[in-house]
Design brief:
The structure holds two protein chains of two kinds.
Chain A (H helix, E strand, L loop, with lengths): L1 H7 L8 E10 L2 E11 L4 E5 L6 H8 L7 E6 L2 E3 L4 H6 L2 E4 L11 H5 L15 H14 L15 H14 L4 E5 L7 H16 L3 E5 L3 H7 L2 E6 L2 E6 L6 H9 L18 E10 L3 E9 L3 E6 L5 H9 L4 E8 L2 E2 L4 H7 L1 E4 L3 H5 L6 H6 L3 H4 L7 H15 L15 H15 L3 E5 L7 H16 L3 E5 L3 H7 L2 E6 L2 E6 L6 H8 L4
Parallel strand pairs in A: 3-8, 3-9, 6-7, 7-8, 13-18, 13-19, 16-17, 17-18
Antiparallel strand pairs in A: 1-2, 1-4, 4-5, 9-10, 11-12, 11-14, 14-15, 19-20
Helix pairs in contact in A: 5-6, 9-19, 15-16
Chain B lengths: L1 H8 L8 H23 L6 H26 L7 H19 L2 H24 L5 H20 L4 E2 L3 H8 L1 E2 L2 E2 H19 L1 H11 L1 H6 L4 H27 L1 E2 L8 H10 L11 H20 L7 H23 L1
Antiparallel strand pairs in B: 1-4, 2-3
Classes of the chains: A alpha/beta, B mainly alpha.
Chain lengths: 508, 325
């Protein structure tokens, strides 16, 4: 019946894979909200969106790592279920993550056929010759000319990526999902990858391609889907849009959010001056200034080097060259030195880097101020508790007592404890790395009010946030990073979401 | 709003802190063992026997107290026993050669401390896991001691020096006084100094401790030096008690010391435990061995019983802690 109909009406081809009304919710966040998405045979489908727009969640739903709360999947028009990664694999879906999943000390052939090795004649053995022959054949189909017995840890990033693709092809993948595949590639390697993508396309393989680079979107894409806040905003063809239009689709406006901020008339004296800072963690030639009374934003995409700048200033990562001048004096060394001089870091991951979860609220609140509170070196539990109780009142930390285990507090209150320990230490510069991640809206505005009060009293803040709207509302100005460098600086009047996204993304 | 509901679910903190509670349970266990032994054996409650138990527990405690600090940072020092042997042999030689017990004591303590320093350097500067660094050190020290002693035994020390290990003061063995002094110092160091607090913080979360401005490497160095120095102290008491030194005296010391730390409630994962707990751990260990001797149970059973107690103590700790969270 259906074939007959198709014969009569030659129009729309059946999508290889179609997602309808996919929703996925995590506590407090709607990661995907009624997203529909179709992939046709032999097309490159670009997936675009800001940090947190839902690209990763969609990718994980596609490969079965997440189970959708609602929605349907269709494979060549037939309804299917993707409840596990095995389901996805059976449908021919393979994902090339940014972090490769290869085993470093095994060779290429072993990696391609890991867990699926052809059996040898003796039970329990592997037919090594057949493994190599099969590997050679797969590598041939993607045009990768290399000896399959080369160990994977001897390969560069681009070559490892080719092995990942070969592995996917050997599993008969018909849909390849690639997460920013060119992020770590040189121009030459990028060209080779694009050639391979063209070749795969010609074989009818579909590619779902996540990218932050405008040039790629237009060079490669047959179709573009834009996500924002977990929703599908639009699906367009590259010929129909301009890069500016795409940026506007990605940004959007959430109007009902306001944060308290009393901007100072004029900034205070220079507190932090970073000159030509370069570190082995991938940041280079960073120049930043922060004055007293300012909240300075540090924006850019995840992975652009924002946290690395914060860590380098704090002494958590070694600096290879450049200068950090704090309060008029050069500073270099371990975090204990930076902390003693008055720099505070409120790290991105508060549970693993900010708190000792099993210790008490009081223990955590005084940990950075021990030297200051007890200059004789003798610790007094009661006095520590009094200091903590003062901070608990001042920051309105909701806890039954200072002796409560900090891990039992809510995210917002835990964050207040992390900030509180630097208040106790009397820090002058507060570096916030994603201070509002995983915190509900009420606690968010409390934390911003607190930062505002701090800088009004003469401290300064450097704030990293992926929530551009927060940066726009609370920052005096902002630096935008791209690929480990400062891509631009935005003054208060230039500080808009569009400008941040524009500077943070690659253009042609 | 969410904060209030979440905190309402959290269990209320009892009057005693978790640490105090754990020590309390252990004291109870030690008393229970005493009661059982008092019923089963007539000679258990004699003054001589009780003093003997305390003196024996003190030797384990000296080694285990320094080790407790290492374990609080989520590390381990497997070289303590070998360190005792080397320090004792070197200190003994110095006393023989110079006739000065004071110099011998100083050299013994210094030797222990230097070994600790080397352990600390391996753990902090070379970033070798403490378990492996100190395990390697164990072999190195054994090798050095055997080479140095070449099968000889040092024997016979001045009477004044021998008082340290076997003398009495006001009816109590001198090691028991030393035990009380170091129990006080160790507890005060851990609970009442900034360094002690920093050590707990490092053990609870080393990454957060570093990012909170604690000089983690320097504190770790300190902890290994203290552990080594306490082994040096134990070597002096050993030497004076036995009135002799041989290369192999350290071999039966490390594992009981670790047992005392674990029975005492210090977590191998770091951040939890007390020096006082370790004292009780050493006491329980010694009481059980003493009781088995009094009841004429074959010494062959002792390791088995020790093992069961360690496993039981750690298991109960984990259970109560999980309930608390």
């Amino acid at each position: 019946m259906s074939t007959a109909m198709l014969a009569i009406e030659p129009s729309p081809p059946v999508p290889l894979l179609e997602l309808r009304g996919i929703s996925k919710e995590f506590p407090g966040v709607k990661a995907l909200d009624d997203v529909s998405f179709a992939v046709f045979p032999g097309e490159v489908h670009m997936l675009l969106g800001e940090n947190g727009a839902g690209k990763s969640s969609l990718m994980k739903v596609l490969c079965g790592a997440y189970r959708a709360d609602a929605g349907e999947f269709y494979h060549r028009g037939d309804k299917v279920a993707i409840d596990s990664t095995a389901d996805a694999r059976k449908l021919g879906i393979a994902v090339i993550f940014q972090e490769f999943s290869l085993v470093p000390h095994l060779d290429i052939a072993q990696n391609i056929f890991l867990g699926r090795e052809p059996k040898g004649r003796i039970p329990g053995t592997i037919d090594r010759r057949k493994v190599l022959a099969n590997a050679r054949r797969v590598l041939g189909t993607i045009g990768f000319d290399i000896d399959p017995s080369t160990a994977v840890d001897k390969l560069g990033v681009a070559q490892q990526q080719m092995v990942e693709i070969a592995k996917a092809i050997s599993q008969k993948a018909r849909i390849l999902v690639m997460d920013e595949p060119t992020a770590a590639l040189s121009d030459r390697e990028t060209e080779l990858l694009f050639a391979l993508i063209a070749r795969l396309k010609a074989d009818g393989v579909s590619i779902v391609y996540i990218s932050h680079r405008m040039a790629e979107v237009f060079a490669l894409g047959d179709r573009i889907t834009v996500l924002r806040d977990g929703r599908r905003i639009d699906g367009v063809r590259p010929a129909e849009v301009t890069p500016d239009q795409l940026v506007r689709m990605m940004v959007g406006r959430n109007v009902d959010m306001t944060y308290p901020r009393n901007f100072a008339d004029k900034p205070g004296e220079l507190l932090l001056e970073v000159k030509g800072l370069t570190a082995s963690t991938g940041i280079s030639d960073i120049n930043i200034e922060v004055r007293r009374g300012e909240i300075v934003g540090l924006c850019g995409l995840v992975g652009s080097g924002r946290s690395e700048v914060a860590r380098a200033i704090f002494g958590a990562d070694a600096v290879t060259s450049g200068e950090i001048i704090f309060d008029g004096k050069a500073i270099s060394g371990e975090p204990d030195l930076a902390a003693r001089r008055g720099i505070a870091l409120i790290p991105e991951s508060r549970k693993s880097e900010g708190l000792a979860l099993l210790r008490s609220v009081s223990d955590n609140l005084v940990v950075s101020a021990l030297r200051k509170l007890f200059p004789s070196g003798l610790f007094d539990q009661r006095s520590a508790q009094r200091t903590s109780e003062g901070l608990i009142r001042q920051l309105r930390i909701a806890t039954p007592s200072a002796r409560q285990t900090v891990g039992l507090l809510s995210g917002g209150n835990q964050q207040k404890v992390v900030i509180g320990k630097w208040l106790a230490a009397g820090s002058k510069l507060f570096i916030f790395d994603e201070p509002t991640r995983g915190i509900d809206i009420g606690a968010k505005s409390e934390i911003f009010a607190l930062i505002d009060r701090l800088v009004a009293e003469g401290a300064a803040a450097l704030m990293i946030s992926s929530e551009q709207i927060e940066i726009c509302h609370v920052c005096d100005r902002a630096y935008v990073m791209r690929e480990g460098r400062i891509a631009g600086h935005l003054t208060r009047s230039e500080l808009t979401e569009e400008n941040i996204v524009r500077l943070g993304m690659h253009h042609a | 709003m969410t904060d209030i509901t979440k905190d309402a679910i959290a269990p209320p903190r009892s009057f005693l802190s978790q640490d105090a509670l754990q020590v309390f349970y252990r004291l109870l266990a030690a008393l229970l063992i005493c009661a059982v032994l008092a019923v089963l054996s007539d000679s258990f409650l004699s003054l001589g026997n009780i003093l003997n138990v305390l003196r024996q527990a003190s030797l384990t405690f000296f080694i285990a107290s320094g080790l407790t600090l290492v374990v609080l940072t989520a590390g381990l020092d497997l070289s303590v026993g070998a360190n005792v042997a080397l320090s004792a042999c070197i200190a003994g030689t110095v006393i023989h050669k110079t006739g000065s017990p004071a110099l011998g004591i100083l050299v013994g303590l210094a030797c222990g401390g230097i070994v600790g320093l080397l352990n600390g350097v391996m753990v902090t500067a070379l970033r070798i896991p403490s378990f492996i660094a100190t395990y390697g050190m164990l072999w190195v020290l054994n090798g050095l001691t055997y080479w140095y002693m070449a099968g000889e035994t040092l024997h016979g020390f001045p009477a004044g020096f021998r008082q340290i290990g076997s003398g009495y003061l006001f009816g109590l063995p001198i090691p028991v006084y030393l035990l009380l002094v170091f129990l006080g110092i160790g507890t005060a160091f851990a609970q009442r100094t900034v360094w002690g607090q920093e050590i707990y913080a490092i053990g609870a979360n080393p990454v957060a401790a570093r990012l909170s401005g604690i000089p983690v490497a320097r504190r770790l160095l300190l902890v290994y030096v203290v552990s080594g120095t306490m082994a040096g102290l134990a070597s002096i008491i050993f030497l004076s008690r036995l009135n002799s030194a041989e290369a192999d005296i350290g071999e039966s010391l490390t594992l009981p010391a670790i047992a005392a730390v674990l029975i005492g409630g210090t977590s191998l994962f770091g951040g939890v435990g007390t020096v006082f707990g370790t004292f009780i751990g050493a006491l329980i260990l010694t009481l059980v061995l003493n009781g088995m001797n009094l009841l004429s149970v074959s010494a062959n059973w002792q390791p088995l019983v020790t093992g069961i107690i360690v496993i039981l103590a750690v298991w109960l700790d984990m259970k109560t802690r999980r309930r608390a969270q």
